[in-house]
Please model this.
Amino acid sequence: MSGILATATTAKSGTTCTATVNGVDTLVQVARDLTVAVGDVLLVERIGAQWFTVQRLFTAAPAVVDNDTPPPPKPTVTTGTLVISPVETRSYRPNWGWRTDTTDVYQGEFGSNGNHTGCAFYGRKARSLAGATVTKATIRVKRLSAGTYAGQPTTLRLLSQSTRPGGAPTLGSSTAGPSLAVGATGTFTIPDSWGQAMVGGSAGGLALFQADGSPYVRYAGRGSWSPAFTLALSWRRG
Model:
């Protein structure tokens, strides 16, 4: 049988060493005048049931190099909350246009004075989070005197415009809005996807609107209460 290559896994001890032969750790007989170190490449040959070292190859055992390659860095995850005050709050009525006598946010119709769409516009500040994922979105609201004193249901709508248009605002998705008694304040959670739409630039505001004009309610705008409709976007990157 012709010789094959093996790698010493122990130094010579007495007349033998251990070497990896064909992937198996094997006891190998070593010639009396041959020195073997760990890692030496050996030419070995099997005679009968035993393996014998024919010679040691190369000038020295290959150096064992520690794996000092650092592991890849873990992705950096950053989080935060961006607080955005509306650039404007205002209410619109189809037959009258935008109200100039108040910055409060109305929903519904009183008498026959037109059905309100009460709006809060947030400008472009949310777009500073481009590339981040919105994990929570909330607004601060306060109910003012108008309509029934007890809490009344509202319908919250997403607006495509980030600033007040000349005509009617463009209404998008809808969800159940805040329901507060007169004088009450609260923090209301809006869909994460709405906050993400503002970050992405496809939306820019919020509105209260009920198609049938009822119930009639009034929420504080910027001129009545400084935190009115303040938007808080919690976000994550990475």
